[in-house]
Write a structure and sequence with these properties.
Elements lengths: L10 H20 L3 H16 L11 H30 L7 E14 L2 E13 L2 E3 L3 E7 L8 E8 L1 E2 L3 E2 L2 E2 L1 H6 L1 E8 L4 E5 L3 H16 L2 H12 L7 H10 L9 H17 L4 H18 L4 H19 L5 H15 L7 H23 L5 H25 L1 E3 L2 H29 L2 H4 L1 H15 L7 E3 L7 H12 L6 H28 L2 E6 L3 E7 L4 E8 L6 H9 L4 E7 L7 H8 L4 E8 L4 H10 L4 E5 L11 E5 L4 E6 L2 E6 L16 E4 L3 H8 L3 E4 L7 E2 L6 E4 L1
Parallel strand pairs: 4-9, 15-16, 16-17, 17-18, 21-22, 22-23, 23-24
Antiparallel strand pairs: 1-2, 1-5, 2-3, 2-4, 5-10, 6-9, 7-8, 11-12, 13-14, 13-25, 14-15, 19-20, 20-21
Helix pairs in contact: 1-2, 1-3, 1-11, 2-3, 3-11, 5-6, 5-9, 5-14, 6-16, 8-9, 8-10, 8-14, 9-10, 10-11, 11-12, 12-13, 12-17, 13-14, 17-18, 20-21
């Protein structure tokens, strides 16, 4: 009698696991964690060697050796490719020099302060002359007419992006090839020519057709739905979709590719096209559409899986969903191994794998319901279970109502997408966009109204810290999926133990995090802000700010660290900060209880703030004035150019501009000093235990190139 396998795994799934482990090993190697690198090398070898277990009797020794050779070769290619990409990225620094740049505009998106362009085919003239191998984020302030497909010219300082950003591996930048960022005014950009690629031309065709046929807000949603580009969406509206847990509809994936393939297949069947030709043509169209959507990992994954389905039917081979997922996983990582560490890749494969493994078992739990409802619940719940930890790790929050909303929303969006796709193409081809898109416009208007009508924040859970206990969570899901064989009692007991470990570990980590005291430093050319986060209160010190500052990073800080309220907002002196304008923007992210500004009493300012925010207390203070806090003590110093505070028995100085002020008058030893552009003089004189610069620095940590810095106390 043949021994039952412990794992119901396919050989291609083992190759996918081995490739995953080998790339993770390369990651730890390039960051000089050799112990963990060696551990994942061993896991790679184990994955490749599973096929030699006695239970795999259906394979000959020769077949097993070929399998192992192919597996290890792919792993070697993936790990070497990853290491090379990281090394090339690290060695591409331009060290903040000024350049004249000409480049191709690949992408345009809106920010709350202007536009952001992604520039490729970059030619520079300056300290280095020639073509760059990486792309640029260009932040443009003011009204701009620059569009995708144009070649532009400008002069600016190119700032290098680092591999680590806000304590995370900057995988998206590395995968996208974006190494530099710069800022210019719209008036300083010269447009040289307009030469879009074929993918950009089709994308622009869809965009222009939608723009002619839809209202502004509906256009931004429709464009995001068809192409995955949400850069035109109003940030408040996009935030509503995210809080509702349905923003995944803007990532072109199986939902979009599946319906497009279904429509194409129906058309080919109507014209009785041969199965092989149909499979080949549809596959080409799907990959072309993926190119129009920027070759996102979710669209490529869905295209590969659909191609497997199509060609399986041609060869009469039974389709295996898990094997097709593994094949897509391998192909993407061979082409670009860095994708393994991007949130889009992780969410895409987590969701589709979760559906493949868990939707059927979950559907059976609802067998008392009509079959379509039970199956829909199985798909939605399995997708949410598989993606929840990734959402918490990357975004700091998860919606507890997302299952219910997706159950209603996804089927409706599937129909809307198909209808919108067809009417957009026909409307654009025949110049009747306003006629054909009349109905989609009001359908999207209704969808936006439903999403925006309710405040989904009350259903958001944030502040959870999962850490290493995430592995216990996913192990339980694997056990419940039936992928691992064994006695039911044994599997149930192991599941209960692992669940208990996960919940206990997560609770301990979350409680410890919420009890801890941290300082967050966020710096840029537009705003320099320090946040002191304690269990009793949150204090924000604004050292510098311009009216064009962006709340993006502060919004991310709020979500990742569950900071929803600023108890005291302090404005340093020595800078022309438009307090009312700053507070108006800041209130979109945080609730604010009181405001303290340095200098003479300004009744006009106080009256304006109270008129706009009646519940906010506002008052002024001078150097040495005692300001009441719950968990810290502090006062302005150096004519308001610094705030000297003590928290957790640590003395911290937060500087604004100190030009013309004798900073030597600030006496005593400091544990932490947070400074502006003239930081090096201050640090050299005071010699604190730790120094942090708001803006990019080559001699200490900074809150610009490294993102918002977290300093535990």
């Amino acid at each position: 009698m043949q021994k039952k396998k412990l794992f119901n795994l396919r050989p291609i799934v083992m190759i996918a696991l081995a490739v995953c482990f080998s790339i993770i090993s390369a990651y730890f190697w390039v960051f000089e964690n050799y112990v963990l690198s060696l551990l994942f090398v061993l896991l790679t070898l184990l994955s490749a060697g599973v096929i030699f277990l006695p239970v795999y009797l259906e394979f000959s020794i020769k077949e097993k050796l070929i399998f192992a050779f192919i597996c290890l070769t792919i792993c070697l290619v993936g790990s070497l490719s990853f290491s090379t990409a990281v090394i090339n990225y690290k060695n591409a620094n331009l060290n903040g020099h000024f350049y004249t740049v000409s480049a191709h505009v690949e992408q345009v998106s809106q920010t709350d302060t202007g536009n952001r362009f992604v520039l490729s085919d970059v030619q520079v003239n300056g300290n280095f002359k020639g073509k760059l191998n990486h792309k640029i984020y260009l932040y443009v302030y003011g009204e701009s007419v620059v569009d995708v497909g144009q070649t532009i010219k400008f002069s600016a300082t190119l700032i290098d992006k680092d591999l680590i950003y806000e304590e995370k591996f900057a995988s998206f930048d590395l995968a996208s090839g974006i190494k530099y960022f710069a800022e210019v005014d719209a008036s300083d950009i010269e447009i040289l020519n307009f030469l879009p690629t074929i993918f950009e031309s089709v994308n622009l065709f869809l965009r222009d057709a939608l723009r002619l046929g839809l209202d502004a807000e509906e256009f931004s949603v429709g464009y995001a739905l068809l192409t995955g580009s949400d850069g035109s969406m109003d940030q408040d509206l996009l935030s509503s979709y995210r809080l509702a847990g349905v923003a995944h509809i803007f990532a072109v994936s199986g939902l979009h590719i599946g319906f497009l393939a279904g429509v194409l297949s129906w058309l080919f069947d109507k014209f009785k096209v041969k199965t092989l030709i149909k499979a080949f043509v549809i596959t080409l169209i799907l990959f072309f559409y993926s190119g129009v959507c920027g070759f996102s990992s979710s669209s490529i994954r869905a295209s590969i899986m659909t191609a497997v389905v199509l060609f399986s039917s041609v060869g009469g081979v039974r389709y295996d969903r898990l094997s097709s997922i593994a094949l897509a996983f391998i192909i993407i990582l061979i082409i670009q191994p860095v994708q393994l560490f991007t949130v889009g890749f992780q969410l895409s494969f987590a969701v589709v794998t979760g559906i493949a493994l868990l939707s059927a078992p979950i559907s059976r739990l609802f067998k008392f319901l009509p079959k379509p409802v039970a199956e829909s619940l199985g798909v939605v719940i399995s997708a949410q279970l598989a993606s929840m930890p990734i959402s918490i790790i990357w975004f700091g929050q998860v919606s507890v109502i997302a299952v219910l909303i997706n159950l209603i929303f996804v089927p409706a969006v599937s129909v809307i997408y198909t209808f919108l796709f067809a009417t957009t193409i026909l409307g654009g081809l025949f110049g009747i966009e306003s006629v054909l898109l009349f109905i989609p416009n009001y359908v999207l208007k209704f969808v936006n109204m439903c999403i925006s009508a309710f405040d989904y924040k009350i259903f958001i859970v944030s502040g959870l810290v999962l850490g290493v206990f995430t592995f216990f969570y996913y192990f339980v899901l694997v056990l419940l999926s039936g992928l691992i064989n064994g006695k039911r009692l044994t599997k149930t007991c192991v599941s209960i133990v692992c669940t208990a470990v996960f919940l206990t570990g997560t609770a301990i980590l979350t409680i410890n995090e919420n009890k801890s005291v941290n300082v967050y430093v966020c710096g840029s050319e537009k705003a320099c802000v320090t946040v002191i986060d304690t269990p009793e209160e949150n204090v924000m010190i604004v050292s510098e700010a311009k009216t064009t500052y962006s709340t993006t990073r502060l919004n991310r800080l709020s979500k990742m660290h569950a900071i929803s309220t600023i108890d005291t907002l302090l404005f340093s002196g020595g800078n022309e900060i438009e307090i009312q304008s700053f507070v108006t923007k800041l209130r979109t992210v945080f609730a604010i209880k009181r405001i303290c500004y340095y200098g003479e009493e300004d009744l006009g300012l106080e009256s304006a703030v109270k008129k706009s925010f009646s519940k906010v207390e506002i008052f002024n203070a001078f150097c040495g004035d005692k300001i009441e806090f719950k968990s810290l003590s502090g006062a302005f110093a150096l004519e308001g150019r610094a705030f000297d505070l003590t928290v957790q028995n640590k003395r911290i100085a937060v500087f604004a501009s100190v030009v013309g002020v004798n900073y030597k008058n600030l006496n005593g030893q400091f544990d932490i000093m947070i400074c502006g552009s003239d930081a090096q003089q201050i640090i050299t004189f005071h010699n604190p235990n730790k120094a942090v610069c708001y803006r990019k620095s080559n001699w200490c940590d900074d809150g610009e190139s490294q993102g918002t810095l977290k300093i535990p106390l």
